[in-house]
Amino acid sequence: MVFPRKLLNDGEDVILDLVPHWSTLALPVAVLVVVLAVTIAGEAINRDLGLGLAVVLVAVIAWVALRVARRQTTNLVLTTDRLIHRAGILAKRGKEIPLERINDIAYHQSVFERLIGTGDLSIESAGARSRETFGDIPRPAVVQNEIYRQMEACASRRTDRAVVWRDPTVPEQLEKLDELRQRGIITPAEFDAKKQQLLDRL
Questions:
Q1: Do the Cβ atoms of 125 and 9 come closer than 8 Å?
Q2: Which of 87, 97, 134, 148 has the fewest Cβ atoms within 10 angstroms?
Q3: To the nearest 5 percent, what fractions of the chain are helix, strand and coil?
């Protein structure tokens, strides 16, 4: 499920919107295929046996549908401001970590997980529970790098906002005024008058 845009702050954009890796559905689908095959075989051998297996098949289909719905309603979202984890089909639970509070990002992959492109992502942040681990993340190394990029961009934006603009000093204003005179934008008389005004401030 796509992260709702109405939950974004002003000026905030979604960079990554991830659901758990497809491998989380491998076991349910494999079980479904086996039960389906056994049900078909049972129906061919004995109708009563096939009927009992059909009930099992319906239960397995419901289980697989629940697993699919759970996967589609679990999101790890990276925005320009924060990292958001949301999960739940009806009841929802979530966690948000502002990018400026993230201290460290690590990932872990077994050999098999590297082959299929999944792994665990571990986020260390400032707070009481300083480390959170998110499992079954697609391409965790790529996600790690993108989080670092967004952290740097976020820090840069904060620095830009923190810059205090000051009025130019009298010598700087005189220098600019002289440039305007030399370029012919103001006359020498205008230059002298403005220069005197600036000097009177000293």
A1: no
A2: 148
A3: 55, 20, 25
